[in-house]
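Please review this pair:
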Amino acid sequence: MTVEHADCVVLGGGPAGSTFAAIARKYAPDAKIVLLEKCRFPRWHIGESTIPAANGVLEDLGVYQTMLASDFVKKMGVTFIWGKTARPGPPTT
């Protein structure tokens, strides 16, 4: 299949792109989905990881137990800090 005949084109096969493509395939099995990635996988890459909020999506895709059993570093939680006060949570005005 070519990009010109696709119903959906996903640019980037990293965690977000590959997850989107898999979810789209699951819920729209007749859709023509093309995933484009310029790099060869798997590759070692610092900074790509998942946080616990993604576990529901991984479960929906049927890969959560495989990920849990893998050698990947497990993140038990995450805190986002931004703004001038450097306090966790959404910025206040």
